[in-house]
Amino acid sequence: MTTGDELLLLAVVPGRRHIRIRGDSRLRYALRASELADLCLAGRIAVGRRRIEVLDARPVEDRRLSNVLRGLGTAAPPPGLKDWLRRTPRSLTVEYLSRLEDQKAVRVRRWRDSSGRTRNDILSVDMPRRRALLTRLDSVVHPGSAQSVADRDLALAVLARTADLARAAYPGLRGVTDRRRMAALAATHRLAPAAAGAVPVADVELAAALITGADVLTRRLLGELSDLYADFTTGGHGLGHGLDSGGWSEGGAGGTGHHGDGHTGW
Predict the structure, then answer these.
(1) Which of 109, 149, 204, 259 is deepest in the core (most CB within 10 A)?
(2) Model's pTM, two decimal places?
(3) What dihedral do alpha carbons 213, 216, 218, 222 form, nearest 10°?
(4) Residue ranges of the alpha helices (H) in 147-260?
């Protein structure tokens, strides 16, 4: 699974009556950012201050990520991070839902409403796989965890927080402390000075492109996603339009979940 697949699986929250997707107004942008994170951590791209630099254009194992890499490599001029995220297609969350379905992580029923629009009912979710994902998230969120924190897990945790998925991972009163820890993690990355800022200005663009560590990467993604999400509430740049679920009959913003239990009946 890619980080995007994992991010969506984390957003799929079983409840007592329905399975819903949380954070869908933010989720598609976080999914778009996750693709950059995977390519960056694989050493194929680097996120510079003003542009996304392709370092190795050879295809990767995942076909979708290969297509993203090809799009970045053929774009003229090379895109900047902000513009790339703002051009996120509205269909992206539905596309990732189909990926989870192909991987048998969810079971989906599709139907058309009275307006002819396709809707998606999530009928079941692979709970063991979701619990394993939450265990990896714990390795980042819980201080003193016995597990080592992988770069990919760090990126997943920060993206999940920016997509407003903390409650999906750590619901209810039991999850208050862990939600605060996720918020603190994101705040640390938002406020810490990026390493690229200390590079001499002789060729700051190239120097920034060569910095591919997870720490700097997550700061850059978090900063740009935070700006995008701020537009949702201020009305800037037109990003508040067309942010409905685009396909879940249950709306996608509600629902409850329980970290670690079996959810009998799903």
Answers:
(1) 259
(2) 0.76
(3) -160
(4) 151-162, 166-169, 176-191, 204-209, 214-234
